[in-house]
Structure formats: C-alpha cells, structure tokens
C-alpha cells in the first residue's frame, strides 16, 4: 500500500539552512500531493527580527512557482518556545511530517555533538519525542532524497556537524584569552568564520562617571574604543598566525549592554556558537554563585536564553 503524507509542516526562518528545509518540503509535498504549511515561530525571549511576513511569503511563492497549488500552501506565525509551538501546530493540523533545517542554533551545541557521535537515528528519535511528530532534518548534506517510510526520513542525513560562524566575546582579560584560543581551535577544526566581539558597556560608564570631573562619558567611550581596537587587532593577528585565513577572521565593536549586544550580533551574523571566558569579572557576583550552586549546565542554559545562541564557557 503506498505511503500517504497528507500534511507537512516546514519550520522556517531567515536562515540559509531553512532554505534547504523549504526545498525538501516542497519536493516531498509535490511527490505525495500533500498540504504544506510553512511555520515561523517568534521566540520573544531573544528574537531580534520579529518580521515573519517576508519569510513566509517568500516560502509560499517558491512553493507555488515549483508547481504546488496555492490552495495547498499555507503559512502560519506563532509566538513562544520554538519546539513547543511546532508541537502545537503539528497537533492542530494532524501533520504527518515536520521538516526542519539541519541543527545549528535551533538545538544545543551538545546535541549537535551527540548527533555526530550517536548518529541521526537516535538524535531524531529524541527530537521526535519532544515534538510529537515524525521529523526530517534537511541540509545540503542529504545523501538520499528517497523516502521509503516516514519513520526512516530522519536517517537520511550525514552526521557532519556544521559550525559556520562563531562569535568570541573578548575584552582582553586572561579569561578572554583562553576563550580566544578555544574559538580559534574550533574555527580551524570546522572551517568556521570567527568574529571577535568587543562591547563597551554604557550602563557601567553611566554609573562610574559623574561628579563634575574633567572626564565625560564621551571621553570614556573614546578611550575604551581605542583600547577595544587594540584588543581586537591582537586577537585577529593571533588567529591568522595560528593558520586561519584572514578573510575568515572578523572583528566587531558594539556599545551597550553586553548580553544584549551579543544577542544583536548573533542575530545579524546568524552565528552558531558564542564562546566566552569563564565567569570571574565577566558576569555578576550573584551569577558566579549560581554557577557554583547550580552547576555549569544550568548556568549555560540561563545565559543561552539571554543571548539567543548556543554558549560555550571555557
């Protein structure tokens, strides 16, 4: 008896990897005459760009241009936790298959390595249990586009882990030097683009400057910019000396709240991983005690929610 796939949900956002998911969803929907729903989930905890309209309209237009009837292509926008909202959508539409892009910022750094170590089958099984529907991960590394059964679909990707862009937040401290070295090591291993980020914390300046002295806030910012340029130049030079192509090493300076500016940089650069030094002077006294009390795993989870990307503390 031929397999039927009546309804497909393709979770998408403004990301190159999601384009592969869209293309695979269109291919399967055409083959099985399925209804195709493009879903965009806005997680307000750390999403900077909340305009889903263009993403969904472009995906629908592409599906129609590829021969799917306009009446069989729907778009849907939801707000909340990404996995939870995919689960709600899958249940409401009684979908047979959910297609997502190959994991980068959408699942944990640890999970990506589990995918590499354990293989796609076990990884997809765990994700399927979270969402409550069959899962396919699509990428340029798909090695067999033929689906024999929906349950087998998650087994059709290679086990290659992708870390295309890394942000290393640095301020030149000894802890940051360790983070810089780890960033270079990983960037070389995965042929990643590496962005060294220096953030000038305005809130700290506003508290620390005042009282009618000769130094103004602008003077302080100017001085810190000069220091930041030196720190970034040294970090980039070190990466190139260790064998990274100069074009793969970028530097970026931002002004504002540190976590917020890392968040913005992650969103603008579509970064897969943020690397920071172990919390000493880089985070608050309370957070250091939370790390000691709750352990690294819980602390990183909290930091990940603030920043909006996977976080590695070294």
Any overview of this molecule?
The chain is an alpha/beta fold and 314 residues long. The protein folds into 2 domains: 7-155, Rossmann fold; 165-313, 3-Layer(aba) Sandwich (Rossmann fold), CATH 3.40.50.620. It has 11 helices and 10 strands. It has helices at residues 16-32, 53-65, 82-92, 109-118, 120-131, 174-190, 202-208, 217-241, 258-269, 285-294, 296-307, and strands at residues 7-11, 35-42, 73-79, 97-101, 135-138, 165-169, 193-200, 249-255, 273-276, 311-313. A 5-stranded parallel beta sheet has the order 3-2-1-4-5, with helices on both faces. It has a 5-stranded parallel beta sheet with strand order 8-7-6-9-10, sandwiched between helices. Strand 6 (165-169), helix 6 (174-190) and strand 7 (193-200) form a beta-alpha-beta unit. The radius of gyration is 22 Å and the shape is elongated. The relative contact order is 0.12. Residues 104-111, 140-161 and 281-290 have low confidence and may be disordered.
Helicity level: 40-55%
Total strand count, please?
A: 10
CATH topology of the largest domain: Rossmann fold
CATH H-level name of the largest domain... which superfamily?
Answer: HUPs
Uncertain segments: 104-111, 140-161, 281-290
Mean pLDDT, to the nearest integer, reads 75
The topology string of helices and strands comes to EHEHEHEHHEEHEHHEHEHHE
Distance N to C terminus:
54 Å
Output the CATH class name of the largest domain: Alpha Beta
In the CATH classification, which architecture of the largest domain applies?
A: 3-Layer(aba) Sandwich
- Look at the helices and sheets and give the structural class: alpha/beta
Major pleated sheet: 5 strands, parallel
Strand content: 15-25%
Whole-number count of domains: 2
Broad shape: elongated
Radius of gyration of CA atoms, rounded to a whole number = 22 Å
Q: What is the spatial order of strands in the main beta sheet?
A: 3-2-1-4-5
